[in-house]
Specification:
This protein is of the alpha/beta class and about 350 residues long. The chain has helices spanning about 5, 35-45, 55-70, 85-95, 105-120, 165-170, 170-185, 185-200, 205-220, 230-250, 260-270, 275-290, 295-305, 320-330, 345-355, and strands at about 25-30, 50-55, 75-80, 100-105, 125-130, 140-145, 150-155, 160-165.
């Protein structure tokens, strides 16, 4: 589904030029929230801010960030309990007159801040409380709509401030899902290259190289990703930022989103609330890598070492539902050609899901 269909974003007008927007300041480390005022001053963001956080993350980190900002800025708060067109419009109303936005929370909170930032043409700072997917640094936002999710162009953060202590204290499942999301870059770029060969779709060699390198680093160091470890949190956050930068270079989510993401979106529709986005992307990556003739066992082994699920059963989804998700993947963003558009049959889909359980 395109952005036009749900009309969340303000029209920007036609422009033949390609703008590459990247985070200017990235601060990662232990107890770094105290550096937020210096980041704001460095970027000359202004004197008034709207802080957007979730119901849980407001108490976890939002109030602390608000107190730090309030010593130097006028700050108001907005609680985004979820992400929806209505919440986005309410956040836009709350942001009227603000010089900049601060998103403190998980993916839904930061995606809300991205879209509001895009529509109001004001900068925002991304302050993730978990490392569950690469949305903390990208210029894309995922919004639930009737019949699934819509991936929208949005505003990349002007800065990222990631406290590794906060992120390491989050459930390890979130960190593992973030790793799986980055590892899925492997098959995303294979799908992009396939679309280039079959459909003549333009590719960016620079974006492909960065995206592949980011995935490779995580796979090679999978054994070092430990639960509730700040070094692991730092490592994964850096990978997620790199993945977001690859998308900014490409001007699209192509370097980090292929058939495995389409599979993930369908799976979320068929079995809502079961798997995290990165988890289902990881499962889809194993299948996609098999179809591309790559080292799918190596991908599966890395995901297992990290603690990410590798089968539908691992996330409480039955195999029949996973089969349907594989067959329906081609219906998500049909303009984005992937390996799942190459005539997958039901028998093949059944065999692919069964393969996930083989040693």
């Amino acid at each position: 589904m395109s952005a036009d269909a749900i009309k969340l974003l303000k029209e920007k007008g036609f422009d033949k030029s390609l703008w590459m927007q990247f985070p200017r300041d990235v601060v990662i480390g232990h107890d770094v929230y105290g550096q937020i005022p210096a980041v704001c001053a460095d970027l000359k963001l202004g004197s008034s801010a709207l802080l957007i956080s979730g119901k849980d993350t407001m108490g976890l980190a939002g109030e602390r960030v608000r107190a730090i900002l309030a010593a130097h800025n006028t700050v108001t708060s907005f609680v985004a309990g979820t992400i929806s067109p209505t919440i986005i419009k309410d956040a836009e109303s709350a942001a009227q007159g603000a010089d900049f936005l601060v998103g403190v929370g998980g993916g839904r909170v930061i995606d809300t801040a991205k879209i509001v930032s895009y529509n109001l043409d004001i900068p925002f700072i991304s302050i993730p409380t978990a490392a569950s997917h690469d949305g903390i640094a990208s210029a894309r936002a995922s919004v639930p709509v009737e019949g699934g999710h819509s991936s929208l162009e949005a505003q990349p953060p002007m800065a990222i401030v990631a406290d590794t202590g906060v992120i390491a204290s989050a459930p390890h499942r979130l960190l593992a899902a973030g790793c799986a999301d980055v590892i899925s870059n492997y098959t995303a770029i294979l799908d992009w290259e396939l679309a280039h060969r079959v459909k003549g779709e333009p590719v960016s060699e620079y974006a492909i190289a960065l995206s592949k390198m980011t995935a490779e680093i995580l796979v090679k160091n999978a054994a070092d990703i430990k639960p509730h470890d700040e070094q692991s949190a730092r490592f994964v956050i850096k990978a997620l930022v790199s993945s977001g930068v690859a998308m900014s270079i490409a001007g699209s989510s192509r370097p980090a989103s292929g058939g495995e993401h389409k599979f993930s979106h369908v799976l979320d529709k068929l079995a809502p609330g079961k798997a995290l986005h990165g988890e289902s992307c990881g499962i889809g990556t194993i299948i996609s890598m098999y179809l591309h003739g790559g080292d799918w066992r190596g991908i599966r082994s890395s995901l297992k070492m990290i603690g990410a699920p590798t089968t539908p059963a691992d996330v409480g989804i039955d195999d029949a539902t996973a089969v349907e998700a594989l067959l329906m993947a081609k219906t998500i963003r049909p303009e984005r050609f992937t390996i799942f558009d190459m005539g997958l049959t039901r028998d093949s889909a059944v065999n692919l899901v069964a393969m996930l359980y083989k040693e």
